[in-house]
Structure formats: C-alpha cells, structure tokens
Amino acid sequence: MNILVTGGAGYIGSHAVAALCERGHQAVVVDNLVKGHRAAVGDAKLYVGSIGDEQFMDRVFAENKIDGVMHFAAFSLVGESMSQPYEYYNNNVCESMHLFHSMVKNGVNHIVFSSTAATFGEPLEIPISEKTPQNPINTYGETKLAMEKMLKWFGAAYGLNSICLRYFNVAGAHPSGKIGEDHRPETHLIPIVLQAAAGRRESISIFGDDYPTADGSCVRDYIHVTDLADAHILALEYMMRKNCSDAFNLGSGGGYSNLQILETAKRVTGRPIPSKIEARRPGDPPVLIASSDKAERLLGWKRKYGIEEIISTAWKWHESHPNGYGD
Ligand code: UFG
After folding, report:
1. What global pTM score does this model have?
2. Contact 215/132 with Cβ under 8 angstroms?
3. Cβ-based burial of 293 (10 A; exposed 0-12, middle 13-18, buried ≥19)
4. Which of 92, 194, 220, 310 for mutating ligand 1's site (highest number of atoms within 8 Å of CB)?
5. Is 115 in the pocket of ligand 1 (CB under 6 A)?
6. Which of 90, 185, 224, 260 could make an SS bond with 172 (beta carbons 3.0 to 4.6 A apart)?
7. Which whole-number Å values give the CA distances from 262 to 234, 239, 258, 305, in the listed order?
C-alpha cells in the first residue's frame, strides 16, 4: 500500500512510518516540522508543508497514488490546550477539515485517525470501552472529539471511511533504538523519569499522592508505540477489507500508578531516580484504563510489549540519543 502519514516526523507518526516500511509498504510523509524532526522520517518521502493548505495537498495527492491516510499531525499537550484554545482548534480541527476535504476531492476514501483517551474526560466506568460516553474535560480532548464527529459526517455525506483509534498512554521507542520520543518541552511521565535517571534532571515530581488509588498516585494504562503503530496498519487493512468506519480503544487493560512507574524505571535502568511529591496537576483523572477487547477481537491486534519493555526500549533511545534528534 501507498500510505500518506501526516505528522510522520513526530513521535507516534515516525513509528508508524517505520512499521509501514518494515512491512514493505510505501509511506509518504507530510509534516510542517513545527514539532516533528526530519531525522525521524528515515528514508520515507517527506513533504514539508501544512495539511490545511489544499493546493499543497492537491499536489501531494497528484504526485503519489495514495491508498489511505494515517493522520497524526496535531498539537497534543493537555495543559497547553487549556491556555491556547484558538491554536488547538485552528491547528487540530480547522487544518484537519481541509485535509479531509482534500482527501474527498482526490478520491482517497480511507483514513485512520489518531484520537485519544482524553475524549472520555473523567470516565464513568473502568475499564473504558467504546460504549463509554465521551465527555472531554480539556480543550485537547474536545478538539479530537470534534474531529471524530467531523469524520462521521464526512463519511455519511462523502463516503470517507474512517477508523478512530483512541490511545491511552503511549511510551517506549523502536526496539532498534533508531527512533524515539523527543518532545520540547517534555511533559510526559516516562521520558521525564528517564531524563532524571540519566542525570539530565535533578529529580522528578510526582503530581499528587492523595488520589483514591492503592498508593495514592494516578494510574495510567501504558501502550508501546510499536504496538500502537501495528494497530494502525491492522485498522487500515480492516477498514479497506470491510469498507467500513469504526472506533477502537487501545491500551493494555491494566494500569500502573505513577509511583509504580518510578520504581520500575529504577529497576530497569539500575539508576537512582530522586523524586518528590508535589501537588496534583489540574485536569488529571485518578485512573484511566482501556478495554482493548474490541481491537483484539475485530482487528486481531495483540500487544507484544509490557511495561518493562516499554521502559527499557525508551531507556535505550534516551541513552543513545541524549539530545534527542539534536536538531
Ligand atoms: N506526572 C507526574 N510528573 C510528571 C509528569 C507527569 O507525576 O513530571 C503524572 C501526571 O500527573 C499523570 C501521569 O504522570 O498522573 C501521566 O501523565 P502524562 O503527562 O505522562 O500523560 P497524561 O496521562 O496526562 O496524558 C496522556 C497523553 C495525552 C492524552 C492522555 C489521555 O499525553 O495526549 O494521556 O489520558 F490525552
């Protein structure tokens, strides 16, 4: 297949590009390189530009016979989204609308969309299934839910098939160590813990130890970025085979508390990781755990990596790339 990967120079997008290439598919990347890194794309063809620029996208579609799209390009920081709703609606919702329109104009009818657990807000049930009501509590989650809904109506009117994949906490790096996570600034727990293990931070702050959980810290469901990339390929194949639209939650069905992540990272790296407890971070639900039964049943998706491998592959990347991609 010839797959257009938007945001293919970003963390998850670059792992999808690698997974496609490893399976003998062609990946064509569109990325504006605002957050992404040219070196993350590898040998795939890269177009630098905006997915919201329809003239530019018409050219990309004209120059490549595209079978389907994997759409990762988006802003994705919950905290930032609360102070910059204009930027989030503009970059995520408006730009995506033009991408979907370009696809329809150019006769490309299959898209796998990168959605998020944040569309569920403070869920009414654990584990969270595809039937759990979606009530975001932050702007980021709202923009992703708006895009899910837009896809539904584009599907009804224009025949654009879509599969929305709602990921829980994505971490880890390609087992080869050649690509990994390089966010500036970094806000996610596992990379921050590993930066502290590597001595590049003095200590790590655990936000809150008074949640209604076993050890008082928040519980999250971690999924390896390579397992996630595999799910995108399976979703694309499923959508093309069935000529359908659908949505799937992707996690592990189990959770680890922030303090458990810290302890696991100490064990995996063999390094001391100084930590302190700080106040809760606003907007953090106490527990987020996905049911991935539907993805396992219908897509045939099976996770290969557990938390130890998630942390050890991330550690391999961090150790071999102390300055990330260095750009
Ligand atoms: N945390 C700390 N210290 C830190 C950083 C994070 O204690 O320095 C805690 C957070 O408070 C939270 C947990 O670690 O309890 C996980 O936080 P992350 O920032 O790593 O991830 P989130 O769960 O906040 O967010 C992730 C994705 C979002 C997505 C969300 C869905 O990054 O894009 O999952 O729930 F929307």
Report:
1. 0.97
2. no
3. middle
4. 220
5. no
6. 224
7. 32, 39, 6, 18
